[in-house]
Amino acid sequence: MSLKLGVPSKGRLMEKTFDWFGARGVGLKRTGSDREYAGAVDGVDGVELVLLSAGEIPRELAAGHIHLGVTGMDLIQEKLVQWDQKVEPLAELGFGHADLILAVPNCWVDVNTLDDLDAAAAAFREAHGFRMRIATKYHRLVRQYLHHAGVADYQLVDSQGATEGTIKNLTSEAVADITSSGETLRANHLKILEEEPVLRSQATLFRSRVAKPEGADRVALDALRDKLSV
Amino acid sequence: MSLKQINAKAAALRAAFEAAGAEVVDCDILLPAEIFLDLYGEDVRTRAYMSSDPARGEVMLRPDFTVPVVQKHMDEGAEPARYTYSGAVFRRQEEHPERASEYVQVGYEVFDREDPEAADAEVFALFQQVLAPHGLRAVTGDIGILTAAVQGLDTSERRRKALMRHIWRPRRFRALLDRFSGRAPVPPSRAALLASADPMADRGPQIGLRSEAEIAERIAVLRTDAEEPHLSKGQVELIEAILKVSETCSFALEHLRDIAVDLPAISGAVERFARRCEALAARGVAVEQLDFEASYGRSSMEYYDGFVFGFLSNQLGTPPVATGGRYDALTRHLGQGREIPAVGGVIRPGVLLDLEGRS
């Protein structure tokens, strides 16, 4: 056995994670060929690097298959019921910033708040005979948010990509998506509602509350946390 | 406690309802989801198990019997009718994984146009009699009094309609009251929109299904609303006074009659409450000791629109043993033009057995 650390397996998220650990004296690197998802850890003994898709890390933490993992808060909260009982956030890593927001077309000059959205949804349903469609892949978070705000007469439609384009393509009336700079939204003639976002997210190091490291793993976890000061 | 015990208890309860004159009905477990989505909106997905079928579209494991029983009655039932059923219902428990996601319900439903208050009393008295050995606390309420108050408010039809739409969402209802009465400030974006001579000027390209005409129409509505006088403080206080009524039926009736002096629109609903109290007393229910809470059932019992009741245990963390109420509007919605006054309720035999085990 060894202490398992789950890290996103590709892209900027992986590189930035490697940098963050590197700056704290823990070297993470991929080994083998470019296509092989294997890695190595320098600087702390008994830690194994597990390269996974960022979207799978919440599930693996909750199952206790990995002890530590780096992923976005958005994915943790969307995928895990009662997330705070399954994982503990140890450190925000300062990158991968993204807000989950609700956006509507710029031309909806009458809609700027959730109050407006709710009223527009009621009128839309009367005019069109179906509930206003909001395209998203964050179903649970968005539903919770709208439930809490008491918004009615809407429906969520699934969109796993190019969500901002769904309004122009007439498959949705509004969108709920992750944005960092808002550029894609502007390019698609959308505006963000003037409300607190559904969620503010960034890359975060989580500890599994389910995996219980013992013996050498316990020592490795303490050594790693010590080195990272988390 | 085993499923066998629960089923035995359910059978006994159903037999008691049959003895009271109800016909036994059964319903499908797998139901078309559309009707539920139509009634309760997207929120129903957090409470029910949904699946999809390439041929049938979205389907749902029945979250309760009321909707299919109403449909069955509308399609093939003779009037008046009394039905009983027992079987499993399925509820997703996203927020509370410790709660049961599959449990047995035994129900009794009355479809009768003759005398709604007598039917309310019949159902409540029957439940009280069946549950008498268990020492539960009964609570009653009446959503009809709140809806009558909203419909009687001295304000525009559009505002009344907006409040009615959110009567089951206390937070949004509150926010609307605050806005209509001027207690909540106008958001800056709304103020800017209203101040603008031509708000449609810099709106960018028109995209999506919601048309320019719909946007212009809502702006016109907002302008009309801004010119309307605020809902008076007195009117808001009357609504708040109604929501706060929480005492025994006899005192609640007196209290509501006092409020009706200033808000005569609720008089009809209050007199219906009075007739129900008489009908309950005639069936031997001690109304002078029976609790009445005007806001009972407002956030959790979305299809009830009149009398509501619950039988609760004083054990912490135990779900209600029984719940029920009147759902005339649901029959109107499902009947497509037809309607029939209906009242009923359900008991959870599993919770009853659990309580018996503890005592």
Automatic annotation (TrEMBL), chain A:
Domain ATP phosphoribosyltransferase catalytic: 54-213
Gene3D superfamilies reported for this sequence: Periplasmic binding protein-like II
The reaction(s) this protein catalyses: 1-(5-phospho-beta-D-ribosyl)-ATP + diphosphate = 5-phospho-alpha-D-ribose 1-diphosphate + ATP
Keywords (A to Z) from UniProt: Amino-acid biosynthesis, Glycosyltransferase, Histidine biosynthesis, Transferase
GO cellular component terms given for this protein: cytoplasm
Stretches assigned to coiled coil: none
An annotated GO BP: L-histidine biosynthetic process
Keyword Transferase recorded: yes
Function: Catalyzes the condensation of ATP and 5-phosphoribose 1-diphosphate to form N'-(5'-phosphoribosyl)-ATP (PR-ATP). Has a crucial role in the pathway because the rate of histidine biosynthesis seems to be controlled primarily by regulation of HisG enzymatic activity.
Name of this chain's protein: ATP phosphoribosyltransferase
Organism per entry: Pelagimonas phthalicica
Organism lineage: Bacteria, Pseudomonadati, Pseudomonadota, Alphaproteobacteria, Rhodobacterales
Gene assigned in the entry: hisG
TrEMBL record, chain B:
GO terms (BP aspect): histidyl-tRNA aminoacylation
Residue ranges of domain Class II Histidinyl-tRNA synthetase (HisRS)-like catalytic core in the record: 4-345
Single GO term (MF): histidine-tRNA ligase activity
InterPro entries (UniProt xref): aa-tRNA-synth_II/BPL/LPL, HisRS-like_core, HisRS/HisZ
GO cellular component: cytoplasm
Sites where the protein binds L-histidine: 64-66, 91, 105, 109, 298, 303-304
Alphabetically ordered keywords of this record: Glycosyltransferase, Transferase
Protein name listed in UniProt: ATP phosphoribosyltransferase regulatory subunit
Protein species of origin: Pelagimonas phthalicica
